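User: Some background: our group keeps a shared notebook of sequences we're curious about, and every so often someone picks one and asks for a predicted structure to add to the entry. Today it's my turn. The entry only has the sequence so far, pasted here. Could you supply the structure so I can complete it?
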Amino acid sequence: MRGNFTTPTFRTFAALVTGLIAQTGRCTVTGMLTGAGLTRAWSHDRAHAFFSRAPWSPDILGISLSHLVVRRLLPAGAVLTVVVDDTLFKRRGKKVFGAAWQHDGAATGPTPVGRGTCFVVIGLVVELPFVARPVCLPVMARLWRPKQELGKVDIAASMLRLLAAWRRRQGPAATGPLMPMPTRPRCSPAVPRAPRSTATARSRQSVKPALKRLARRYRHLSEEIADADADLRVLIARTAPGLLTLPGVGTETAGQLLVTARDNPDRLVSEASFARLCATASVPASSGRTDRRPHGLTIYRSFRVTLRSP
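Assistant: Of course. Here's the predicted structure to add to the notebook entry:
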C-alpha cells in the first residue's frame, strides 16, 4: 500500500492505523494519536490534514486493500463474495458534514430514524481459521447524503464497477503480487511529449503577442485618462479655481463635488446637507457600548492628506 501515498503521508497513515488498532476508547482522529502514543510528539493538525488535504484516494486505497485480502485470506480459485451495506454513524452538531436525519436500521422503537452520517460500505466475505463463521471485511466506503443525485444503490454500483474493473485488470494473477496502481493520470505513450525547450519556445511565441496587445491598450487608455483629466481641470479652474488648491482635493474629487452640487441646488441648504448629498457625512455605526461614526471615503482621503501636508 505504500505506493498509494507519498512518503510523509504514508508515515502518518501507518501511525493512524497503529493508533486505531491500539485505541481502546473512542476511535477519533485525536484518539488514534493517543493510541499510537504520539500526542506529545505530533500536532493534531498533522492527523487532521491527512484526511482533509493529503494527496491520496480512498477508492484506490480500498482497491489495494481488497487485493491484499484476496491474496492473503482467500485460496486460489475461491469464489469472491462481495457484500454491500449502508451504515448510519450517529453524529451530533451543526457543523458535521453530511449529517442529517435519515433511516437507521439498527434503531429501536417504532420510528427507525437517527441523525448522523450514512456510509455505503463494500466488504469481502472471508473465512478465518480462528472464527467459526464467515467474516465480512470492509474495503471501500463512500458518504451518502440526502437529496443528492446519486442514491445508495447507485453509489454501491459505482464502487462495484470500479472494483470489478481492477479485478479484471489483475486477471488470473490476482492471488499473486499486486500490480502497481497509478494514483495520478499518465500520458498515453502514443502521444510523444515535446522537449522542454520546444515547449518553452511555443509558450513564449503565444504569450508575446498577447502582452503586446495588452501594453498597447494600457498606453491608449492612459492617454485617454490624461486627456480627460486635463479637460476636467480646465473646467474646474473656470468654475471653482480655489477648490484645487485645497490639500487632498484632486481633479476627480473636485469634479464629483461640483457635479453633485450643480444637479441638486434645491437640496443644498447647509454644509451638513451638502456633506450628506456627496456621501461624505459621517454615518452612525455603533455596536453595543462602542460609539463610532466613520466618515465617507472622499472626506477621509482629504483628511489624511491634510494631516500629512506641512
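Suggested note for the entry: The chain has four domains: 1-56, 57-181, 197-239, 240-308. The first helix runs from residue 7 to 22.
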